[in-house]
Amino acid sequence: QVQLVESGGGLVQTGGSLTLSCAAVGRIVGINALGWYRQAPGKQRELVARITSGGSTDYADSVKGRFTISRDNAKIAVYLQMNSLKPDDTANYYCNVATRFPVTSPRVYWGQGTQVTVSS
User: Fold this and answer.
1) Is the peptide bond before 102 cis (omega within 30 degrees of 0)?
2) Burial class of residue 36 (count of CB atoms within 10 Å of its CB; 0-12, 13-18, 19+)
3) What does the alpha-carbon distance between residue 111 and residue 113 come to, in Å, rounded to a whole number?
4) How many CB atoms lie within 10 A of CB 110?
5) CA distance 4 to 96
6) What is the DSSP track for 55-118?
């Protein structure tokens, strides 16, 4: 049984910083990418940032230059450093692990979510 355990959310003022962490408990093989998604009330879940097994990164336009995704290659862990936070960043943030197995229907794992609230 695989679990993704997240931490680091909380309440912060506009302009502040937070770091989210996510670590996998259990064995995951064939990882394609680790990522962070977020979902605000009444909105769809959206990609925030992703880092592939090769180290390439993608960011949502709204967070470029403010957020940095990183990973720990010694274990299945991914981090999101969030700087210059804005009220629009308020959402529940979810850790994501995308794999390439099984080939017919690659498995995707999700964390339970951690709330980030940015006050104006």
Assistant:
1) yes
2) buried
3) 6
4) 13
5) 8
6) S-EEE-GGGTTTEEEEEETTTTEEEEEE-S--GGG-EEEEEEEEE--STTS--EEE---EEEEE
User: Contact 79/20 with Cβ under 8 angstroms?
Assistant: yes
What are the DSSP calls for 7-73, one per residue? E--EEEETT--EEEEEEEES---SEEEEEEEEE-TTS--EEEEEEETTS-EEE-GGGTTTEEEEEET
pLDDT digit string, tens, across residues 61-76: 999 999 999 999 788 9
Can you tell me the distance from the alpha carbon of 29 to that of 44, in angstroms, rounded to the nearest whole number?
28
Name the 3-class secondary structure at 120: coil
The pLDDT tens digits of the residues spanning 38-59 come to 999 999 999 999 999 999 999 9
Cβ contact 18:85 at 8 Å: yes
Residue whose C-alpha is closest to residue 69's, from 11, 17, 9, 19: 19
